[in-house]
Design brief:
This protein is an alpha+beta fold. Helix content is 35%, strand content 25%. The longest helix has 27 residues. The C terminus is likely disordered.
């Protein structure tokens, strides 16, 4: 049989292979997204903004206690000038938007390697086995066959003072906390004050740490939290502003817990932040983008990793004309990294940024012995970077990809060396041997990579888009029947996902945040929802992967017999409105 007949027979086999694919095809493949799973150890997150000798510290802490009353002591190097509640969605937004690149799904890479191998292997065999070798006509003929095969696959997939040694500087209500700022003359005085306030006395180790802070001239912000339940809790973050000559994150008091603590610091400053105890997950210079039109949106999407859902894809389902311009605030500014393409669009976060600022994410798992000193952050010239990690599946797919593309290189080399010669020379065999060794070494190195993280439940992009659209569609239906309206209080809005499930309007899996793996919640952060006032009307807003606020469902005033809290109650309960 001649080489031409061999290629014709292989072409027939390809057509036969493509036919069942057309019958069994179940839609085009969309890559999955994945996110690092939450560490199963105590967690602390803080956002630090440092500019002109003033630090704004937004701190959140997860704790596990059986006591409904919890005291939280935050040492500060200077008396704070402001203490306030921070938007609960800010730190979630920073965690999602500034995460490492998770190499999880390389199906597209493997798919193209497979298709190239289908094209190249028969040509390489012809070059090795037949004297006429591979001619241009052979390559064109086989390319047409493979393109027809690819087209068939594509068609198949369409679809007050307490002690003489205590000076209380201020006491105020801050959200769920009552915060007192005080200076102590000695650890015993602070312990007595805590006892008088109904909080547990400090241990001997804690008193020693308090003594160190007192010697250094620090003051203390004591936040007392009152809650109804027990166990693990993550209260809303607290925002503290104070002067300091260097950005700092207080860590010595955390040593009292005696456990390994996962600490994430997000630093906004004029330069890149660094600490010897922390690794840099990402760092970049952020520029302000003005997004006032669909064209601006598409330019922004091309520069960044791409919006997950275009805002005009949710606006009133078909009443898109004019709504983008009417609802999208003029002068809306979104910040995007110049080199990494990471973006930050959550309104409260964007208010802290400025054009040309540098945002750094630092991360560490700190044992007690690593918390003997506070985290004083150094500022240095920017070196833009973003950490890359593998999911367990991504690691093996990376190894397979190296092997597949290495095989393509080998096949191409064999075609060149064997064409019209039947066998390569000794030098040719050496070249093929070196290429084979490099391919195997690269594949083994990828398979045994240690930069592997556990990931949350992965989801395909189109599934996340359908999920968000379904949420908005159900919200529209609830508006129509009067169960969702503009005077609902925070508690009822927070219970909205559970109500959707109880009324069999959505399945539980349809209300899982694709960026966190948790239940969709009432919070201004990626994948969640919130109610905002826009142009005098209440709108249910959803938040894309960058935290950008997208008005999706207009909430009308309730009818006279509708249930709901008053506007005054709503204003008292909502922090970020």
């Amino acid at each position: 049989m001649t080489g031409h007949r061999v290629l014709a027979a292989l072409a027939g086999a390809v057509f036969l292979a493509a036919a069942p694919c057309a019958v069994l095809g179940n839609g085009g493949y969309v890559p999955e997204i994945a996110f690092p799973a939450m560490p199963q150890i105590p967690l602390q997150r803080a956002l630090i903004v440092y500019r002109d000798g003033v630090e704004t510290l937004i701190v959140e802490s997860t704790f596990d206690s059986e006591s409904p009353g919890v005291g939280w002591i935050l040492p500060l190097p200077a008396e704070p000038t402001e203490i306030d509640v921070a938007d609960p969605g800010m730190l979630t937004t920073m965690a999602v938007c500034l995460g490492p690149e998770v190499i999880h799904d390389l199906h597209d890479v493997l798919q193209w390697a497979f298709l190239l191998l289908i094209f190249l292997v028969p040509l390489a065999l012809k070059a090795a086995l037949f004297e006429e070798g591979v001619r241009l006509l052979d390559a064109v003929f086989w390319l047409v066959v493979c393109l027809f095969f690819l087209a068939m696959l594509g068609a198949a997939g369409t679809g007050g003072a307490a002690s003489s040694s205590i000076r209380v500087l201020s006491t105020e209500k801050v959200g769920n906390y009552e915060v007192s700022v005080l200076r102590a003359g000695d650890p015993g005085a602070l312990a007595a004050w805590l006892s008088k306030e109904g909080l547990t006395a400090l241990s001997q180790d804690a008193n020693a740490i308090v003594g160190e802070y007192i010697e250094d001239g620090w003051c203390f912000a004591v936040a007392r939290l009152r809650r109804d339940g027990k166990g693990t809790a993550t209260p809303h973050p607290v925002r503290v502003v104070f002067p300091t000559n260097r950005p700092v994150y207080p860590m010595r008091m955390t040593r009292i817990a005696g456990t390994v603590t996962h600490v994430e610091l997000y630093v906004i400053a004029e330069q890149m932040a660094a600490s010897e105890r922390f690794r840099t997950v990402c760092a970049d210079r952020y520029a302000a983008w003005s997004v006032d039109s669909e064209e601006d949106w598409y330019r922004f999407a091309a520069h960044t990793e791409g919006p997950f859902i275009p805002p005009f894809g949710l606006l009133h389902y078909g009443k898109r004309a004019g709504l983008f311009n009417r609802l999208w605030p003029k002068g809306l500014t979104i910040f995007a990294g110049a080199d990494t393409g990471l973006a930050l669009g959550q309104p409260a976060v964007a208010d802290l940024l400025w054009d040309g600022c540098i945002v750094t994410r630092l991360e560490a798992n700190l044992p007690p012995e690593a918390m003997k000193t506070d985290v004083w952050l150094g500022l240095r010239p920017l070196r833009a970077q973003r950490e890359s990690v593998f999911s367990p599946r991504g690691r093996w797919q990376t190894a397979e990809s190296v092997l597949a593309w290495g095989a393509i290189t080998l096949v191409l080399s064999a075609m060149v060396l064997c064409n019209r010669r039947r066998r390569p020379s000794k030098m040719g065999w050496r070249v093929l041997g070196v290429l084979l060794a490099l391919t195997l070494a690269g594949s083994v190195a990828a398979a045994f990579s240690r930069r592997v993280v556990h990931v949350g439940p992965s989801v395909r992009r189109w599934e996340a888009m359908e999920q968000r659209s379904a949420f908005c569609l159900v919200a529209h239906a609830m508006v129509a029947d009067g169960h969702l309206h503009g005077r609902m209080g925070t508690a009822k809005l927070a219970a909205l996902p559970a109500e959707m499930i109880d009324r069999d309007m959505l399945m539980p899996e349809s209300l899982v945040n694709p960026f966190t793996g948790q239940r969709v919640c009432y919070e201004r952060s990626p994948g969640n929802f919130f109610v905002r006032t826009i142009n005098g009307s209440k709108w249910l807003c959803v938040y894309d992967r960058h935290g950008i606020e997208i008005p999706a469902v207009e909430l009308p005033p309730p009818s006279s017999d509708s249930e709901g809290s008053t506007l005054e109650q709503e204003k008292r309960n909502e922090f970020a409105e």
